[in-house]
Amino acid sequence: MEQHSIYLDNNATTAMHEDVIAAVHQANMLYGNASSMHMAGRQAALAIEESREALASLIDAEPSWIVFTSGASEANNTVFNIFKERIDLGSKRNRIITTTIEHPSIIETVKYMKQLGCKVDECPVDSTGLVDMEAMKNLLGDDVALVSVMLGNNETGTIQPVGEITELAHQVGAYVHTDATQAIGKIPVSMKELGVDYLSLSAHKFYGPKGIGALVVKTKAPYAPLVHGGHQEGGKRAGTYNTASIVGLGVAAKIALRDQPSECEKLWKLREMLRVGILERISNVVVNGNQEHCLPGTLDVSFPHAEGESILLYLDMEGIMVSTGSACASGSLEPSYVLLASGVDIELAHGSIRFSFGRYNTEEDVAYVLEKLPPIIKRLREMSTR
Amino acid sequence: MEQHSIYLDNNATTAMHEDVIAAVHQANMLYGNASSMHMAGRQAALAIEESREALASLIDAEPSWIVFTSGASEANNTVFNIFKERIDLGSKRNRIITTTIEHPSIIETVKYMKQLGCKVDECPVDSTGLVDMEAMKNLLGDDVALVSVMLGNNETGTIQPVGEITELAHQVGAYVHTDATQAIGKIPVSMKELGVDYLSLSAHKFYGPKGIGALVVKTKAPYAPLVHGGHQEGGKRAGTYNTASIVGLGVAAKIALRDQPSECEKLWKLREMLRVGILERISNVVVNGNQEHCLPGTLDVSFPHAEGESILLYLDMEGIMVSTGSACASGSLEPSYVLLASGVDIELAHGSIRFSFGRYNTEEDVAYVLEKLPPIIKRLREMSTR
Amino acid sequence: MTNFMSQWVYTPVVKDHFMNPRNTLKENEQFEADGIGDVGSLACGDQMQVMIKVKDDKIADLRWLTYGCASAIASTSMMSEMALGLTLDEAYHLTPAMITEALGGLPEHKFHCSVLGDKALRAAIDDYLEKQGRENPFKKHVAKVICECKSVTDVQIEDL
Ligand SMILES: Cc1ncc(COP(=O)(O)O)c(C=O)c1O
Ligand SMILES: Cc1ncc(COP(=O)(O)O)c(C=O)c1O
Ligand code: FES
Ligand code: FES
């Protein structure tokens, strides 16, 4: 029935790689509890340790730093909870710095912590979504416990100078976390080079399974579990090992390590084709985010006088899947807080469309979008109050 | 090479049912983000809602009560965190009651909360592991916020009178949580009949995938997320929907609902065959836990003068997989806290072996164990200090 | 999973000694020990007894019994092979590290298991010297022999 199915929502989640699907299917036979000493348990434990090493290679970290979690949301919550606890226990470093454009799993956690009286400063960003480094320097001080800045933004793709920020933060003795969820597999990510103490990621953003991710924690960085219980993950995260998904994450990590350079090139090419094509065919268009420091596959565009949800649904009718603002906000009436934080006009912040490319997209996909999108925008603009 | 592979560690985790494996494999194609409005997202969302209904039917709850989590550990942590937060915010009901034999995901959470100054009472159990109802009555009072009592114990299989406890707790205005993780699929579990306000479960205990479970929360019971972020699960638990695993949980729930009565009968028969066989063949054996109120597939036995890990590993050499005490304690020197809490002698608490049956076990398995176990015990006892 | 035997929790040497422990006291065996050492207790989850025969100040023969885990069984079995024929002096200075090395390693949290057999051996030598009414030239060098399952640290093990 559907003739086209063009998935341009890869920043929300990706389709699993066929090798990952096969590996997960196989690993579903490794049913033993990886904490058990018997054969079934040991087989599962071995498979898990192999994945730990694969992930460590991908992000240039030590295998022992990796704590598998149910995803990046849990990983981000865990980091903030570590410092919430330390502050609650009376640590003199009692301030946290983050930014205005983090993922909801940080934004909402910060809201919650502030309600409880925690001191959190949100560093502003410039009009392209880049962290305002002057503001950051002014915010830093020896009362800062944690600085958390995402690596690549899920909505605009803007890449932050996390290495630089880390240096500054370490100078005042603060620990640094980066949410690298969107960057993994798209750009090179070296935890050692970035110098960060904590890093979050989620497998389903790089063709792995959903419901599995990791918090990567340097050995000397403070830690406290969010999920207390059994001794899994060295006592850092309780819960029976999710063997099959961890295996899937490991295979996805191996593929990402192998393919990242070529993927990066390909994604950027498709993204640029679409950007140039849209600007050629549609007038009055605003491309959001920083166009220099940008994740290769992300293109976020505002179409004044055309409402985001309507564009999304008309595109969907044509078999083109995109998202408005951040996927998490879908179904809500909120304008994109990421764009608002970058000083984008509220009307533009309401009507942004995110095209996010993945490994299965082709130039034909771009051509198809460039055929279908202009009449949709035209139609909506004609319908629109002027 | 391995001739026998007899898995008797089903309380630790079960092998996925083949229908579950097939459904998960299929659902891995439902890659869309279930929060997204486009086609791929809606397909995933539909599959998730079907699972929610299947789980609701299994435990006689409303679909809207279900919050999918990464497992029972997270679900248990979430419940305790809800009340920790309320108490922190100054609630007059500032005491929690639980028992001495809960799963580590509660025991450790309680330890942590006590360190932070929270008032938690652990109700004692009798020599069969049943909650001491007199002690419970004495502990209850109008300062109690939450009573948390597990339904079936993972180690001894002892089943608690949760319905009765709930009535008493509700009389003093406390909320009630039960960790039903071990009971699901083995005995009938009706959340409405039990009357509890919160219930935890994990899919991998009833032939579903690992890394997925649920906290089931009545509409009017207090709630606060453990993982803050996106609007998933009605804002109750952030993180991209783990579609495939949720689908697997749903299929496992359907199978459990269908097969629970016959499974219960079968598991009890195998367990009794083994219990009687051991008592006939091996002298000086102690069967732990309550033999009347007991999960059908669980048999926990202490063999004085034979050490648990050694028994486990000798059995493993014969292809028989069991666990000592709770799986979480494996590799540690701790005696079983569950048995110690039941007043079992410390030496017996050190050397207990848990045989836990599942749907793939047969009478031949029992016969094989009854052939291999006695010489192992004999050998270890000969080697043992006398 | 073709090669599951190599995936055993412990090393192949540990496995061999666990499956075929050497020099255990057989059920009806008469063993006239010159010295007996007991350490640990059932309550701790590990208990160890070492019996020695001494000839010309050498360990002429040795038997042991344990209520202990696989690591305890394997390390005591290994210890018993290493100790046979040693002078009392040499035997007294066998260390858990030497035993562990001979086993090809033990997991960190199982290190203390190798201490048990070793301590029991020293206790047996102490017992022998005491029964002989001889002065004990070794004892002052080491901590007293008690069950320390839960408190033995790597540092202490290094010290021994
Ligand atoms: C930047 C960023 N951080 C965190 C997350 C959360 O990941 P998950 O939903 O897998 O927990 C996402 C995606 O949803 C993301 O894009
Ligand atoms: C009674 C009980 N509660 C909770 C859990 C935790 O489940 P999970 O490890 O899936 O989080 C388990 C099993 O490990 C259990 O047996
Ligand atoms: S008119 Fe429908 S969301 Fe505002
Ligand atoms: S002897 Fe105590 S655990 Fe090995």
Structure overview:
The complex is a heterotrimer, with 2 copies of chain A (386 residues) and 1 copy of chain C (160 residues). A 7-stranded mixed beta sheet of chain A has the order 2-8-7-6-5-3-4, sandwiched between helices. Chain A is α/β, with parallel strands linked by helices. Chain A has 2 domains: 134 residues, Aspartate Aminotransferase, domain 1 (Alpha-Beta Complex), CATH 3.90.1150.10; 238 residues, Type I PLP-dependent aspartate aminotransferase-like (Major domain) (Aspartate Aminotransferase, domain 2, 3-Layer(aba) Sandwich). Helices cover 43% and strands 14% of the residues of chain A. In chain A, helix 6 links the parallel strand 5 and strand 6. Chain A is globular, with a radius of gyration of 21 Å. Chain A is built from 13 helices and 13 strands. Chain C has 160 residues and is α+β, with helices and mostly antiparallel strands. Chain C has a single domain, classed as Sufe protein. Chain: A (Alpha-Beta Complex). In chain C, 38% of the residues lie in helices and 17% in strands. Chain C is built from 6 helices and 3 strands. In chain C, a hairpin with a 2-residue loop joins strand 2 and strand 3. In chain C, helix 1 crosses helix 2 and helix 4 crosses helix 5. The termini of chain C are far apart. The N terminus and C terminus of chain C are likely disordered. At the A-B interface, helix 1, helix 2, helix 3, helix 4 and helix 9 of A face helix 1, helix 2, helix 3, helix 4 and helix 8 of B. One FE2/S2 (inorganic) cluster binds next to helix 2 and helix 5 of chain C. Chains A, B: It catalyses: (sulfur carrier)-H + L-cysteine = (sulfur carrier)-SH + L-alanine. Chains A, B: It is an enzyme of class 2 (transferase). Chains A, B: Keywords: Iron, Iron-sulfur, Metal-binding, Pyridoxal phosphate, Transferase. Chains A, B: Its EC number is 2.8.1.7. Chains A, B: InterPro entries: Aminotrans_V_dom, Aminotrans_V_PyrdxlP_BS, Cysteine_dSase, PyrdxlP-dep_Trfase, PyrdxlP-dep_Trfase_major, PyrdxlP-dep_Trfase_small.
